[in-house]
Amino acid sequence: MDLTQLIIRNTLRRRLRSLLTIVGIAVALFAFTMIRTLIQAWHAGVEASAKDRLITRNATSLVFYLPLSYQEKIARVSGVERVGRANWFGGEYKEERFNFDQFAIDENWLDVYPEFKFSPEARQAFLEDRRGALIGRDVANKYQLKVGDTVQIKGTIFPGLWEFTVRGIMEGRDAKTITRILLFNWDYLNERNKTELNRESDQPGIFVIQLKSGANPAVVAKEIDQLFANSYAETLTETETAFQQSFVSMSGAIITTLNVVSGVVVLIILLVLANTMFMAVRERYREYSILKAIGFKRRQLRTLIFGEALLLVSGGLILLALFLIPIFLLPPEKILGPLNVFFPIFTLAPSTILLVLVVATVLGAVSAAIPYSDIARARVTDGLRRLG
Amino acid sequence: MSLVFTYSLRHLLTRKTTAFLTVIGIALVVFVFVATLMLSQGLKETLAGTGSSENVIVVRSGAQNEMMSGIAREAANALLAEPEVARVGDQPLATSDSVVLVSLKKRGSAEPSNVTIRGVGEQALSVRPQVRLTAGRNFTPGSREVLVGKAIHDGFSGTEIGQKIRLFGTEWEVVGLFDGGRSAFNSEIWGDVNAFMPTFKRDQFSSLLFKLAPGVDFAKLKPRLENDKRYQVSVMRENDFYAAQSDFLATFIRIIGGFISVVFSLGAVIGAMITMYAAVASRVREIGILRAIGFRRRAVFVAFVLECLMISLVGGVLGVALASLMSFVAFSTTNFSTFAEVAFDFTLTPSIVVWGLGFSLLMGLVGGALPARAASRLKVLDAIRQAG
Description:
The complex is a heterodimer. Chain A is an alpha+beta fold. Chain A has helices at residues 3-13, 15-42, 44-48, 70-75, 107-112, 120-128, 137-143, 186-195, 217-227, 240-250, 252-283, 285-293, 298-328, 332-336, 350-377, 380-385, and strands at 53-58, 80-88, 101-105, 116-117, 132-136, 150-155, 160-172, 181-185, 206-211, 235-239. Chain A contains 16 helices and 10 strands. In chain A, strands 1, 2, 3, 4, 5, 6, 7, 8, 9 and 10 form a 10-stranded mixed sheet that branches. In chain A, a hairpin with a 4-residue loop joins strand 6 and strand 7 (160-172). In chain A, helix 1 (3-13) crosses helix 13 (298-328), helix 11 packs parallel to helix 15 and helix 13 (298-328) runs antiparallel to helix 15 (350-377). Chain B starts with a helix and ends with a helix.
């Protein structure tokens, strides 16, 4: 009988306990995987962002807008290839808030964001229709919208009912691109602000900036902000990644909590696994001593004990895969339910899978280490004398 | 019965390590469960405590928060002349506020967060009696002076009395600190509305708040004002208005906390089962003897269930005790509904303690029942014959 067989036999000796341990590991690893994925989903905006795209906003806060005249001034800064403008609209569709982002944008914006793919005809049709809209694939699928359909959005920041005609559907360049978005013409927003809402017009919320290749984002950003320093509307320019990160950081306390909780899960797995290994080794204390007496080396005992722990962990991982596969085949709105509004992208990342594998293996090793050191230290005669 | 109890207790004490590991496992689960309940309780109490049911808040029709709202001066004046508004002398007991967000840097972090800046009227402190000045003095009307809420003072740098906060290129001196009890006002900065509005270039108020005159029927007032074409406003009791802003975040915390608690508890139940099965297995002979000398199956079952309940209760008490320490931790994050920072506490209520302990006992019962049944079903003769 070689060692592998012995390990398997040992593990199968207390079938119920081994099974419970495997289920316990799988359940806890499941929680761990979901929490890590949730933390990752929080960063979806950061993941989708570009480090070489700049965003200029009002330094006071996003509630305040910027004068339209800044656009031309920014365009003249060296290193700037193109400047677009946008306003976050924040309206309700079908009586629900947060079902997708809506932005009023100008033509330049479309070129600054090449990750949204649509036909030249759609672009043309969109630009020619003041009330036209481009919608992302995610929105089109969720609400079964197609080109030519009418979308009615209730304004919250900009009151009133806003009606748009879908002129094109945008595909994402890759899985990272968030296509839960609706774009409409900035001029339409501006015109209604002026004529009907009595609001100050010509006030974009942010400028989006595409850099010339080779331009240093930090230098350009600084130069832009210096242009408007000590003016009424000072600006804050940063990379899109930093801009998105600032939204994530607003929920910093929640993310920290989730990180702590995922650490607690790791601890719970360790407790379950260590408990089982501890009991298994104690029951077989005498046997191990006999093995020692008949000439087993420490190294072989170590293989036996660590092997058993790793076998349990592997069982847990296989069961985990059986839990995860059907879940992640579902669309995010089925997995997350009401939380889906916060997380447009919820997929299992390879880095998360790797992390789970590493954590599981390390936990297996740690849980075997303590009982093994007991056995390794024991003198054969003591072990033989001891009662089961 | 007391014999059964002592038997269970003695056994726990002899198998210290495994019992200990199980206790820790359950304690961790209860800790997370209770901490989550405490957090959503704290959030609810804070936002519900922000308003009084005797006050009425008026925002633009369709606006979900004050940032989105706008009420013109003429409408505001007309509204405050309504007979339902309480008065001292001929002054309405009311405040017309202007609310904006400003990003300030958190203490010990370079990341800015959105802080609510509220321009208030002269009667603000009389309409909101829960807000008290704790240091310094009130702002002088018309001057660039501000009062800082307790949570902002604790959480953000540059907010000591005498320090200056920069808003729109102008300096505002901190002249006083206030404590809003348990309310979201603690996470705000207050100043004179007439000084703020020109600075922010706002010509509309964000909200009106007034105390109801004695004997006014709110149920009649609400439709009358909301249907008045001159106003185009939503009218709500102040406490309901702020409570509604906790919905998103509270739902979020509840769902995440619920998921984590359920998955964790599965892990803990499995851990308890493993321990109890081992306890049964190592005592087969004893159980046989107990049965032989006249203990009934039921007594054996009860003994093992009791043992598991004791473990879980100790874990539960430990978990609740750990969680109660969280009362000393302030939690501050961005409210998704307003994009503004809100600080709240982990709040422990008696019912949360009961839930936590009940949850731990439930885990003990579920984890102990199957092993206890296995023990009670052992055949007397087989059990006695078994070695070890």
